[in-house]
Amino acid sequence: MSSIPSAATTPVANRGAITACIILAVIMQALDTTIANVALPYIQGSVAASADQINWVLTSYIVAAAIMTPPSGFLAAKFGRKRVLLVAIVGFVAASVLCGLAQSLPQIVGFRLLQGLFGAALVPLSQGILLDIYSTEERGSAMALFGVSVMVGPVLGPVIGGWLTENISWRWVFYINVPIGALAFAGISVFVKETRLDTQAKLDWFGFGMLSLGIASLQLFLDRGGQLDWFSSGEILVEAIVCASAFYLLVIHTLTTEKSFINPRLFLDQNFAVSMLFIFVVGVTYLASLALMTPYLQSLMGYPVVTAGIVMGPRGLGTMVCMFVVGRLIGKVDTRILLFIGLAITAWAMYDMISWTPNVSQWTIVSVGFVQGAGLGFLFVPLTTIAFATLPAEMRGDGTGLYNLSRNIGSSVGIAVVSALLIENTQVIHASIAAYVTPFNHAFQAPAAAGLDPMTAAGRASLDSIVTLQATIIAYMADFKLLMIMSLAVMPLVFLLRKPKAPPAIDHSAVME
């Protein structure tokens, strides 16, 4: 993996205009990580997708972004950072329009893949430009502004997405990128200068290809497994074999090639290796729980899409607030303590959600969502600090790309797993409860059971609706419990992290997106 090229910091004309345009590009990309969530039930109805298939709209974007983030530095060095950034903006906006025009599930999933491929470079390249135009003393403030723009997505995404879906159409959650992208493109074209090209820049294409093939086949395996009954399907067997083979070849290639796509020396650093597992779990709990909440609020609780977006917004607000608070605590409080607190808060939020039913109050949803977001805020900055604290400076560029990759894979895998478990557990629990629904059960002979007679068609229909609802609620509880257990399971790993001697020279926002 190649690090992003960096020019010497010198006084820059139109720095404010450059900053504004860069922030617009970052906000556009950050919004798309969450803005489509609240519109998923509406998209599902428009493209005739099942409950498990519609999550491909989320996972396809994340997987594509995960694959294309690491080589963004190589592309910038080879073809010029400004040129690559402009192509990324145009491609991202074009793919957004195509998503809005999509008429079928394969179309919207394919166009979301394009969105992820083009959008992957927006954050790292935008950050590189900001680092170049601000002096060393000013970079802290610049990166704080950059971090806020990255976190705008989780805060405003559900709210804006809900309003657009309710008042115009779900297609406008994608069309909104057109004016934002146009402004960013125009500003960057006029004010940003091109970097020098590195004609000697090279990419380990075999390693990149094997990693991409492994991630893509793993995601297909997880997304399609539940639908095709896992290993009873020939397609799933092929995907499992391709995934295992690709990762095997990647490992062998990495260990035997002098300059491989993944630097194996990164894993010799204990803090970085442990943090890779941590950030994977953070990725799972962050977006997987968000993907669960959308259908829970709209399908089970009957919330209008705008209301669902508003009650989900405080989760991102909690993350943003705590990131600022924790940023001030770094260096004053042991980062391992902050990590432990973050995991404990996240686990508690999931524990509370296990007891939820469709009768849960809006205040509970808002407050627990804020607490869960606060837990993630306690994890982001300390985890970045300790992950790179003992890593040599020349390896941090490679480390940042791999770190982001792990989080993105965690997000896509988490969404796929909890979605598959939700469908499977609902079916299993429905069958278990339905076994007690017989004409011979005395409970149905009581006066209170009027209208629920298993001997009549109307009674059976009412009973099936009730049983399905109960089975779905219990299945959601099982998913929330799994996310809680994952948060608790990584807690002991805190003790494997070594306390850094001094804060590392890396900005925390580098790994937010």
UniProtKB/TrEMBL annotation:
User: Origin, by domain of life?
Assistant: Bacteria
The regions listed as transmembrane in this protein's record are 12-31, 56-77, 84-105, 111-131, 143-164, 170-191, 203-222, 228-251, 272-293, 305-330, 337-354, 374-393, 405-423, 473-497
Quote any Pfam family the record assigns.
MFS_1
Q: Indicate the principal place this protein occupies in or around the cell.
A: membrane
Where does it reside? Cell membrane
InterPro entries (UniProt xref): EmrB-like, MFS, MFS_dom, MFS_trans_sf
Q: How does it sit in the membrane?
A: Multi-pass membrane protein
Q: In its keyword annotation, does this UniProt entry include Transmembrane?
A: yes
Ranges where the Major facilitator superfamily (MFS) profile domain occurs: 18-501
Which UniProt keyword terms apply here? Cell membrane, Membrane, Transmembrane, Transmembrane helix, Transport
Protein name, entry field: DHA2 family multidrug resistance protein
Per the UniProt record, the source organism is: Rhizobium herbae
